[in-house]
Write a structure and sequence with these properties.
Structural class: alpha/beta
Number of strands: 14
Shape: elongated
Largest sheet: 7 strands, mixed
Strand content: 15-25%
């Protein structure tokens, strides 16, 4: 990812494109399920775009870049309203977002850029706000490549919106096909045309044993099987960590293991979201080794946790259950939310 800071002219073009898009108000005839693509002239990556505002609540444009972004978009469209007990909802998204809100929603850094550009905005739902979303990270300011690409997406979104106003069926294609605006470089600049593209399905990572097999065998030999039921979860912590004032804050994974028999937490740790299968498996095996107990059943509500534990379930002989909520771990997370005022 290009982390270069945008230049003043990059911002000027972005804010102009956003203002033109806002004035068009295409959310009056387009909805967030009218999806179309824009290909990045530099990287060749496709950003899948969704116009926001038809419901009268949040106005703007969401862009989901590349395969990761498209998977995020599909998840949003399929899941709809979040599960009430899913702490990871909204933290696994890859997108670029421009919204038009109120002045108090902007930070000092946002306001400084607007002042530097000599721009003025008045009233509600008039102030542009730009943010980048990465899985496991706090929404953050756009880097130079993201500013450039979002500018292009806003410009091309207007072209698509004009066409949709003339023809309401403009984006109705065959199943799995999307209209994508594709650039071609010419002497006079970029020439844009339409292509119908079927995005590649997101690769599915198979569950893998990420720890030493000998360690698993040793733990199995030294620990006894039981009829205990444990809760295990490795969701994102509710509060982000920022290592320095200029770095992007990230949400660490909070590993919790609870024993349903006595209602106690028997395992706790926090780690950066890197090699998740290995991190989760190591911490789970540590709890098993410390308690000298292999539970009969593990209850999970998180798909990432469940996938990481599946190879250990096969090796150690416990069952995995998918549940909608975890009583012990849920209570701990609620207490953390209250404590941090989230």
């Amino acid at each position: 990812m290009d982390n270069a800071m945008p230049e003043i002219e990059d911002y000027r073009r972005l804010y102009q494109a956003a203002e033109d898009f806002k004035q068009l108000a295409c959310w009056q005839w387009m909805s967030d399920i009218d999806i179309f693509g824009v290909q990045d002239p530099v990287s060749g990556e496709i950003g899948y775009c969704s116009v926001l505002g038809a419901d009268g609540r949040l106005f703007g444009l969401a862009v989901y870049p590349g395969d990761e972004g498209f998977a995020s978009l599909q998840s949003v469209l399929e899941q709809g309203e979040p599960e009430p007990n899913d702490p990871d909802f909204g933290l696994t998204q890859r997108s670029l977002l421009v919204t038009f809100g109120n002045r108090e929603e902007l930070t000092k850094r946002d306001l400084d850029i607007i002042k530097m550009l000599g721009l003025k905005f008045r009233g509600r739902n008039q102030w542009p706000l730009f943010r980048s979303f990465l899985p496991g990270y706090h929404p953050w300011y756009l880097d130079q490549a993201e500013v450039r690409f979002l500018t292009i997406c806003l410009q091309q979104a207007q072209e698509v919106a004009f066409a949709c106003r003339e023809n309401p069926n403009y984006l109705l294609l065959n199943e799995s096909e999307y209209l994508v605006r594709v650039p071609e470089s010419r002497e006079a600049g970029l020439n844009w045309s339409n292509k119908h593209i079927c995005p590649r399905p997101a690769p599915v990572e198979k569950p893998r044993l990420a720890v030493d097999r000998k360690l698993v065998q040793a733990i199995k030999a030294s620990c006894k099987a039981s009829d205990q039921v444990w809760e295990v979860d490795a969701s994102f912590a509710p509060v982000p960590i920022q290592e320095d004032r200029n770095s992007r804050p990230y949400y660490p994974r909070l590993f919790l293991c609870g024993d349903t028999k006595n209602g106690l937490i028997i395992g706790y740790d926090m780690f950066k979201p890197q090699d998740l299968p290995r991190e989760i498996q190591e911490r789970f095996l540590q709890v098993v080794a410390e308690t000298k107990t292999i539970p009969q059943l593990i209850a999970t509500q998180n798909a990432v946790t469940r996938a990481a534990l599946r190879p250990l379930a096969q090796k150690l002989g416990f069952a995995l259950a998918k549940v909608r909520g975890l009583a012990i771990i849920g209570a701990i997370r609620e207490e953390m939310l209250r404590r941090f005022g989230v």
